[in-house]
C-alpha cells in the first residue's frame, strides 16, 4: 500500500480561500477540519482552475483539496470516465479507508500534473488538462460498512419508463474522472483502477464526451446527440441558491452532495424520422439555438401560458421542458451529463448512443425524484429515450492535504 | 438517394493550388480531371487547414477536395473513428458508385462545417474542428468489382505474432474520420453510417485518441499508453522523399495511397511489471523524452554501433527501434496511429488498451511487409503486444468538387 506522504495533515487549502467555522463544529478528534470548514456556507469554489498566464490549456490544474470535492461545481471538461466499483468480499471499513487513502493520494497528485506514487507511466501525468477525480459511495457503504450511522445514499424508486440493464447496476463506489485530454483521462483511470484492484473490482466503465476545449465560443451550452441544446436550465454556480441546491448539510456529508447517474439510451433511428417541427414540439425548445418556443434566445424564460392563434398552448404541456420544470424552485439540481456513443454491432448503424446523465443534488428525494416521477408519467421525449442504468452515490465532502475523501465519514461508523 | 447538388462538376480546388498535367493524362471522358491533376508530382498539401485569423480552433476547415484525399498527410487531430463496412449482397459497381457519390458529398459538406444533405442534426455539423473523411477500398473491391483491372489492395501475409480476432477482420470499405472534437466525429460518423446503410453494413468501429488540441506544445510527438513517445521516426510531410513514400503512382491509384490497419493490443498488466531500464532497453529509447539510448534528444539518430564499457551494444539489436529500422530507406512509411482503450470486463483492470495502428504507404509489399516481417521474427516488444486485427485498403486519389472518391477507379473496371 502507498504510505501517506504527509504524516501531519497540512492545514492549508492550496490556492483557495476558505471560511472556517468555529471549533464547536468539529465532529471528532483526529478527523482534521474538513467538516468544520464546510459547516458554514462556504464561498463557492466553482472555478478552482489555476491560470498561469501564457500556460497551455493542458497545464490547467483544478485543485483536488477543498471543502467540496472537485468535479461537481467545476466546469465540465471534454471527457468523462465514470467507474463503478464493488468492494471485494470481506473488505470492511478498514479496507475502504485504505482504498480511499490510496485513491485520494493518486487523485491529489494526478490532478496537479504529477505522477501517482509508483506511477508506471509517469510521463502521461504531466498534462493535467483540468483533471478532476470525484468519489462517490453507494448505498451498501452506508448500510453495511457505516452501519446506518449516516443518512447516506438510497436507491431511487423504480420509474415506469426504466428498462434497467444489469450491466449498469448500482455499485459500492463511483469514481468520476473528467479532463480535457483523452490520454490524461486514460492514464488517470488506469492508475486508479490498478491501485483499487486489490480491494475493489470494476463493474463498469462509462465514458462520455462534450465539446472539446476551445472549439466553440465560451459559454456555449453543449448539445446532445439528438441535436438539442442540453443543459440550459441548469443552476449556475453564481446563482444565490446554488449552494443550497447542491451542497448537503446532512451530518457526515456537510459540504458533500449526491450523484444521480442515469444511463439514457436514445433511439436515434426513430428520432431521425421526426421532422423538425415535431422535434421542437416534443422538447419545447427550438433546435437552432435552444430558445423556448415562446422566446427568442436560449436563456429566455419559457412562457407556459402563451397560446397561439387557435388558442392552443405554444409549448405543449406534455413537452419535455413543460414536464421537467417545476413551480417549486427546490425541485432543481445540477446536471453535468456527457454524451456517449459506443460501437454496438447489434444495432442498425452499428452504435448505441445516448447520455451519461450525471446530476448533483443536496437531497435526491426532494429535488430529483419528483421531477423524474413527473417525466416518467408523461414526457413526449419518452418515446425516444430509455433509462438503461441507474445508480445513486453520496459524494463525501472534500478533504484537506494529507487527508482522504471519506475520512470523517468513516470515523462516524457504528 | 441524395441527388448530386452540382450537375456540372466545378473545376476548381477550393483554396488550393494544383499543378495540372496535360490533357493526354486524362483517363477517360466524364471522369473529370482528378487523375490528370495528380499525374505529375503535385505540391504537397499537407497543411490544408483554413486559418481565418481570430477564428476558434473549432472553425478550422481541412479541404476535402484535392489531388490526394485529406486525412493522410494532414496533421492527425485528437480523435479517430475508423469504420469497417462490407457492401451488401448484390451491390456491384453501380451500387458502389452510388454509395461513394453519396458519402463523398456528405464528407465534402461536413468537413466544411455544413450539414450533410438531409442532415437530421444539422447544428452538430457547424464545428468542423479539422474534420477529415478518408475512404479506402479493400481487396474484394479490386478482385470482384473491378475484375482485376487495377492492381489494388492485397491482403497482408500472415505474421507469426498475429492473433487475429474475426471481429476486426478485413472489410470491403474503410472510412477514416478524424477531428479535434468528439461530437463532430460522432455526428459525421452517424451521418456516414446512415447514408451507407442501404448499400453497406458496418462490421466494426475502431475509435482512438491522441493529444487533445492545444494541450501540449506544438510539435510534441504523441505518447502511447505504454508511456512511450510514439512516432518519432516518421517521415515528415516536408521530407523530400515524402511523396515517393506515401503517394502511389500505380495506374488508377496515382495520387492515392494504401492504408495498413493493425489493431495492436498492449498487455499493460505485464508491461507494468517491467522496470524503467527494462522498458527502455526493450524499445531502445528513453522514456522521458524518447531519445535513442545513444542520444540526448528525441530526434537524434540512433547509433546502433555504439557500445558500452563492457563492449555491449548500447541499443540492444533485439530492441524495437533496432528491428524496425532498415538500412534500406525505401522501407519506411507514414504512421498515423491512435491509442485505444475500451471497457472490457473480462480483463483485470476492466479495460483493453492498445493502438489502432494506421500506416500509409505507396507500396505495402515493398515498404511495410519487410519491416513487419522483421518485427514478427524478433522484437523485444513482442512480449507485450499482440496484433488482433489486420486489414489493408487502397486509398483512391482525392476528387474534385462535384466528383466522388473512386470515380476514376470505377471507370476502369473490366
From TrEMBL, chains A, B:
Q: Which UniProt keywords apply?
A: Heme, Iron, Metal-binding, Oxidoreductase, Peroxidase, Signal
Q: Name one GO molecular function term.
A: peroxidase activity
Family, as annotated: Belongs to the DyP-type peroxidase family.
Q: PANTHER family recorded for this chain?
A: DEFERROCHELATASE, DEFERROCHELATASE/PEROXIDASE
PROSITE patterns, sorted: DYP_PEROXIDASE (PS51404), TAT (PS51318)
Query: What is the name of this protein?
Result: Dyp-type peroxidase
- The chain positions of domain Dyp-type peroxidase C-terminal read 222-399
Q: Where is the Dyp-type peroxidase N-terminal domain?
A: 69-210
Q: Per the UniProt entry, what species is this protein from, by scientific name?
A: Sporichthya brevicatena
